[in-house]
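Incident log, structure service

09:12 report received: a user says their structure output differs between two submissions of the same chain.
09:20 pulled the input from the user's history:
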Amino acid sequence: MTNIFMAVIFLAALCAPASAQSKRAKSEESLFLDLQKTGLGALNELDEKRKFLELVRLEKQKLQGNMLDNIYENAYEYYRNGNYEDAKDLALKIISIDPNYQDAQMLLEASNQLRGSAKPGMSEKLMIEDRFKTALSYYTEGRIEEAHAKMLEVVKLSPNNIKAKYWLSKMKEDLKDYYFQKGSQDYQVRDLKNSLDNFYNALLIRPRDALTIAWITRIEDELRQQKANDQLKAALESYAQGRLKDAYEGLRRALEVQPGDSKANKLMAEVRAEIENGYLAAGKKLYGTRRYPEAIGEWDKAKPYTANMGYLNKLISRAREQMKLEGDEKRHRAEEAARRAKAEEEQSAKEEADRKAAEAEAKRKGVAVEEVGKKPQGVSEENRLAAQSHYMEGIKYFQNSNYDKARDEWTIARQLDPGNADAAAGLKRIESILSGGQ
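09:34 re-ran on a clean worker, output below:
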């Protein structure tokens, strides 16, 4: 980035005609840097950030390329006007930013050759003639690429050279045949990548050549199939080693290249089924031990691999229902235990109050406590305890609004212990409720 701005500043200092262009390039660069700063923080997904940064890189390259082309136009203008020193300096600036800028390399070489010449016009003519002869020599030797590149230099340095344009056109046609032949040879030895590159080079020279397009289509199909086969092979190796998820990813990539591959599709179905069954089994095992949230988690993991989403949703729904039922049951048991504890606490308090009352009565009468608390004849201790047990059972039914069962229990309590006042009061309360009273 520093080199870009240095080049822009250098241009502004050297030539007034270039100032507007350099200002425009600088303005575009500034605007783009603002774009680069804007919105990046709002991108949360890693893939989105990568795509954005790739866009940044491409746009930056585009801006840099446009700016260097503007600089080159100024350098070439200096060259055409015989100002070889300034042409050389600008060419050097371009190369310092982009060492692969071939036209700048050519202009630097020509400017160095002509700089300081006593007769620049004659020197340029001799230089052009020398390059022209070199290009023809390469062409005669069958070095088509080098001949074309050298003749292209002649045409760029001397745009009005009719002879050079004629030979460049002839060499261009031969170059197309050269690339076509080279692509065919690479294909024969199964070097598909280089073969495709050569056929594309031929297509650039003759864009509508049907035979070249047919070859490119054929090779691209083979490359896709080769890539799919490589992915399929890697997936099979992962599958054989039990690495099911790696196998799944490999098959997914293979099918992205060749969606209709029957072998890959068949294996994909098997791998997906195995992965799904693994999650299903793990979930069912957790469900059996009442670890419902973890079971649901396993079944959720199976969703990307299933062909029966309804079944998975049914399992998850059942687990959630069971969680709710057991939660309700647990809460009910806790409430029941609390009610029972409260009843026992109340019973203990009542017994303690009765004991204290008996002690006070015994003290008042001057008799033993046992005499005061002695139960009427005819009710055994066993019946009294049984009556109290039925009374407690009646309380449970009463609290659950099961008045018939409560009445049965308290009736038994009264039969066992006619003096059980609590059971009598309970029966009165039930009669009042059933008759519409409060």
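09:41 both user submissions now match this output. Likely a transient worker issue. Closing.
09:42 reviewer note: DSSP finds 18 helices and no strands in the chain. The two ends are 91 Å apart (CA to CA).
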